[in-house]
Amino acid sequence: MKSTHRALVAGVTALAVAGALAGCSAGGDAGDGGKTELRVATFPPGADAAAYEAFAAQEKQFEKEHPDIDIIGVEYEWEGPTFAVQLAGGSLPDVFTVPFTDSKTLLENGQLTDVTAEMKELGYTDKFNPIVLDGVTGDDGKIYGFPRQAYAMGLHYNRDLFEQAGLDPDQPPTTWDEVREAAKKIHDATGKAGYAQMAINNTGGWQLTAQTVARGGRTQTDAGDGTAISTIDNDATRATLQFLHDVKWEDGSFGSKVDLDWGSINQEFAAGNIGMYTSGSDVYTALVRDFGMEPSIYGITVVPTEGEDPGTLGGGDIAVISPTVDDATKAAAVEWIDWYYMQKLMDEDAAVLDAKTLNESGQAVGTPLLPVLSRELYEQSLEWVADYINVPVEQMTPFSDGIWEQTPVGEPKVKTQEVYALLDGVVQKVLTDESADIDALLAQAQSDAQAKLDE
Length: 455
Fold this sequence. Notes:
D-Maltodextrin-Binding Protein, domain 2; two-stranded parallel ribbon; alpha+beta
């Protein structure tokens, strides 16, 4: 899913919106002085002014190095239910990002641009984690995007609410039983939701899958012949739903809002209304930049794991090019993706410039991620930008120390978003009906999901 990171002021924001509405995917129009206009994704609507200031600085840096390209920022937020409509309607920018989970479907539909030659020319093909690169490689062996960031699932928590409940924020829960106990203490002491979970717009299925993996289960397995088998009806998914039921109905710790998605749960957490929730480890940037969270309240730890084969669900997104652009716009898009997303991962000078620019604009530097390259390159990059790291790293230590001990597990590969949407209904039923029959829900969901996989 989303994540789920980087980088304009108010006037540019208005221009970005206008660009989005105008149908930006055509690209290639000659701009001022014959320049190639390139419409690129920036931030979700509502991002703070500092984010656009950072982007404006980076835009100037890029255009100074590439005087023949005119960058136009377009507000952008990936949402599963509406993305296909935006893509079909041509209202996306020339360069945008999509989750790993959507890449296979987009490849099958011919909706991404082949960048194999460009990737090889830049020398990046052999530097990516092969598992990550597989997510943007089609059945034809060609590469259709640039993996730009990855994340692992984390348990995000409010340090202030922990302290008000008599809990030690430096010793967060390590088991699901402890999560439940902490949630009740937080709710009893503060009246806030001790724990909350996403439930709509495909995010309910995403998080149900994540917690299934954490408990040792899988919601889908590879049949080995290009097809997949639905395995939703398993003990780990059952335990996850029972956990949600108990927190909501037995403990009263869940809170009243059961219709949260990625944006709304971040908003609630940033406002101090939620004690704990699970999401990608990279969400800190958005919490501060887009939702106004006070950094001092933030904590993150690894998601508790249990069972015989537990792991942590990972994901990320890729920078891609609209298939409707002309050759000149495609060339400009590759230049932008390389400069804006990729070079800072591999080149010290680019990493330092990026970190310095973001830091000076008040943007987050040093949010915990999983590397799309090697662990060694990732840790080296942190050393490069050490002077500019401005996130509260000590409040993230439970995650950064523990994540390397967990086994990363990729998201289901077939009909991912469709199955997530189906599972939304299961999560919502458990959260809205105290007497929901979990066994029956799982049996039906597995059957319905298999039908989708067989289409």
